[in-house]
Structures are given as structure tokens and as C-alpha cells.
Amino acid sequence: MASNMKAVKLRIKSVQSTMQITKAMELVASSKLRKAKERADICRPYFRELHKTLQDIADKNTDFSSVYAGKPSSPRYCFVVIAGDRGLAGGYNSNMFKYVDRVSEGKDYCVLPIGKKAVEYYRRRNREILTDAFAEIAKVDVSDCFEISRLLCKAFRDGEVGHINLCYTGFISMLSQTPSDLAMLPLEDLSREVSEQEARRVRELMLFEPGEEEVFNAIVPEYIAGLVYGGVCESVASELAARRTAMEAATDNAEEMIEKLNLYYNRARQASITQEITEIVGGAEGL
Amino acid sequence: MNTFPLRIGTPDGLLFEGNVVSVSCRTITGDLAILAGHINYCTALGMGRACVVLEDGTRREAACIGGMLTMVDGECRVLATTWEWKEDIDFERAQSAKKKAEEMISKGGLSDREFTLVEAKLHRALVRIGLSGK
Q: Which label site among A112, A216, A221, A256 has the fewest CB atoms less than 10 Å from its CB?
């Protein structure tokens, strides 16, 4: 009994130290989350407007002379996958990868991973990686996004890839984050499904100045950078929220375990005392 | 005067939303002004001074750098890389940025990529300074 008690005591101690860590991580995540959420909230309108504007353009576009607007030169896909730098964030990273695996099924594709976990995941699977220069998502800022966009546009212009999709985790609320993907290039992928009725209507035209090609060449890199930046902001906020929730649950579980172990420990202690008393009483009677 | 809805967005947030009489800014091919009733239109923005005339006739000036301007079904959207209202610009910082960029260019020895970066910095500083009207 005595050795059992010692084991329980040790177990309580180890659970306690784990709880300390999870509690600290929860606090760190929630303080970082506040800032990340603010950034995501600020960026979201721009992200939405940008995507909507390009959708409008894609719907109304009639001239396919620009590389960005025409038919894709290659059936190959490129997925920009945004994941976290660290684990211990519940299902955040694995949900993202599962999602990408699902949407990319049956497609020939390469990836541009952002975040250490994404880089590791695709390297392990020997997937072709466009660049692994953005392995630290915490450090990615607007100028990095322009760099990413430059790379993507170059690959697209050279015909290495024909479609570019952005996979990020949308921040819906503190408790819910869902992976989603967004077609970025070519513009054709963007245009909304037009219903029969609307298709029959004459398409409204749009004036491009000085010309479609010049305009697209100027705005597409900026548009991609904007979308990637928006995706990064959303994903960082989602990661922190996921980590906070996961750590909160872990802390609660640890508390519960400690309670149970304490109860067990006290029972064992009491039992051993009772036993001792019975032994003494039994011994005294024998005298 | 007829007005139309305008939204100005940058990665730093939605900076303006409301009805305006006109908006003018510098595009890649030159200055341009948009009034109500413009046809569907799209162009890329260059670097320069932008000006918005509000419903009540007040003019607000800003430095506008990069991005695009679209007019879709009577609604205008300006999505800029940088859009700074005149009153928010830190002119001293722009002056020092200009000096620094000029020094780097005159020193030379920059790679092509560095040179374009410094040049862009100088451009941005000049736009900001130009707005001060001094």
C-alpha cells in the first residue's frame, strides 16, 4: 500500500507540472490571439473586397489576351497551403492537410507551404515544393506576401502551373475555424457559376484602361499578395484560437485527473491508517 | 451633384465607405477622375496624389500607391496597397526616408532587385512629400 501511495503522489506531481505548461500555453495563446484577431479583423474587409472585385472582373471579362485571363497553359495545380509553426493546436494542422488532400485528389499538383508544419508535411511526402523560404508563419508580413506573389506569378507565366489555389483556415469565431480554399488564378476559375437564365442575358462589358493585358499584369501580382496576406492573417488567428481551445481542454482534463488521484490517494491513506489501528487493537487484545 | 458609393480598402483596413461626388487619382497611365454614372471600368493605380470630394463638398487628399480601381454597376472600389490620408502622413519620416534612399542610390553598388526596392521607397517618399504642398 505504501509503495502504491508513493506512485500516486508522483503521478499527481507529474500531472500538475503538465497542467502548469498547458495553462501557460493557454495564456500565451490567448494574449497573442487578441492581437492576431485584431489584425485579421482589419484585413478581412480588404480580403473580401479584393476577392469580390476580381470575381466581378472575371464574370465580365471577354478578352482573354492576357496570360492571367486566358485558358490555363498547364493542367498542373499549385496549392498555397498555410499551416502553423508548431503543434499542440488541436486538429488545426491535420485538418488543413486532410482538407488539402481531399481537394487535390486526382490532380497533379505542387505546393507552396507557409508555416513549418506545412513544409515538414510535404517534404515527408516528397511532394514538389515551390519554395520553403516561408517556413515561419509568425514572421510573414506584407512584403513577404509580395515575394510569394512574385514567385507564383512567375511560375504561372512560365507555364509551370496552370491553376493556383489558396488553402487557409478561416477564422469564424473563437471556437470554430474551418479550412477552406480559394481559386486565385487563372481568372477563369474565379468566375461564379452562371445560371442558365443569366447566361442568356447579354453580358455587361467592362472597360479596361489602358488595356486588359496591361491592367491584369499590374493588378494580378498585387491581388495575389493581398489574398495571401489575408489568408495568413486569418490562419494565424485560427491557429492561436485552436491552440487556446486545445490547451483549455487539456488544463481542464488535468484538473479532473488531479482531483481523482487526490481522492484515490486520500482513500489509500485512510485505509492504511485504519488497517494500522485494527492491527494495534488486534495486537492489544491478543495480550 | 450626383453621388456614388465609394469604398477604399487597404490591407490595413477599410479606410472609407460612403457616398462621394468624385474621386480622382493617378493610374499607371495618368490622372483620372471618376464621377457618378461611369460605365463599368477597371484600371491599375500608380503612385501619386488622390483626391476625394465628399457629398458636402469637402475635399480630402491622400497619398495613393499601387492597387486597383474598379467601377462595377455604379459602385466604385479602390483597393490600394497604401492609401494615407493627408492628415495621417508623417512628413518628417517621409523626408528622412527620401534622404536615406537618395544616399543609397548615390552610393551605388546595389543589385537590380535592391535598386528597384530603394527606388520604390524613394518614389513613395516623394509622393508623400509632394502632398504636403511645400
A: A256
Q: Do residues A145 and A171 share a domain?
A: yes
Name chain A contacts of B77, Cβ cutoff 8 Å: 49, 53
| pLDDT bucket at A248, cuts 50 / 70 / 90 | very high
Q: Which three cell numbers stand for residue A256?
A: 479532473
Q: How far is the CA of A12 from the CAs of A15, A251, A258, B60, in angstroms? A: 5, 14, 6, 66
Query: Which residues in chain B have their CB less than 8 angstroms from residue A215's CB?
Result: 42-44, 68
Distance from CA of A251 to the nearest CA of B (A): 36
Residues A265 and A142 occupy one common structural domain: no
pLDDT, tens digit, 9 for 90 and up, residues B58-70 = 888 888 888 888 8
- Residue A205 shares a structural domain with residue A266: no
* Closest Cα in chain A to B32: A209
Across A170-174, A207-211, A268-272, the highest mean pLDDT is recorded for: A268-272
Q: Mutate which of B27, B79, B124 to disrupt the A interface (most A C-beta within 10 Å)?
A: B79
Asked if the structure places residue A57 within a domain, the reply is: yes
Q: How many CB pairs under 8 A join A and B?
A: 78
| A207 strand-pairing partners | B41
